[in-house]
Amino acid sequence: MPNFSELEVGQVVAKKSYQLTRDSLVRYAGASGDFNTIHYRDDIALSVGLPGVLAHGMLTMGISVQPVVEWAQDSARIVDFGVRFTKPVVVPASGFAELLVTAAVAQLDSETKRVRVDLTTTFEETTVLGKAQVWVQL
């Protein structure tokens, strides 16, 4: 478990990249029940004005918190998590879309031993989640 007293604001506690493929989207759709065609059919995505097949927002959100879960060593330590979706993640028919997640300490509450970790999730050097904040109980 991370040591609260060794943390400081601005400290990067995790950084990880993830590759999303169309297969990832199919698996997520099966697990979540979200079979919206914009997540697997280019023709439908393009017909509604999207740049292509998009990763599910909740998949992007779930992937983004994973480095913090690993850092905290227990998902039960996550006490709050929120994001704003700002840009879509377009997943090509072949190859992959790469997400880069960086987690940094933004606030320390010494009274409760809670840490706010801010996430920066990027795709093609563009931030795709805004106000991505995770509160961790240490």
Automatic annotation (TrEMBL):
Residue intervals of the MaoC-like domain: 10-119
One Pfam family cited in the UniProt record for this chain: MaoC_dehydratas
SUPFAM superfamilies found in the cross-reference section: Thioesterase/thiol ester dehydrase-isomerase
Gene3D superfamilies in the cross-refs: Hotdog Thioesterase
PANTHER family hit by this protein: (3R)-HYDROXYACYL-ACP DEHYDRATASE SUBUNIT HADB, 3-HYDROXYACYL-THIOESTER DEHYDRATASE HTDX-RELATED
Membership in a protein family: Belongs to the enoyl-CoA hydratase/isomerase family.
Protein name as annotated: MaoC family dehydratase
Organism: Aquiluna borgnonia
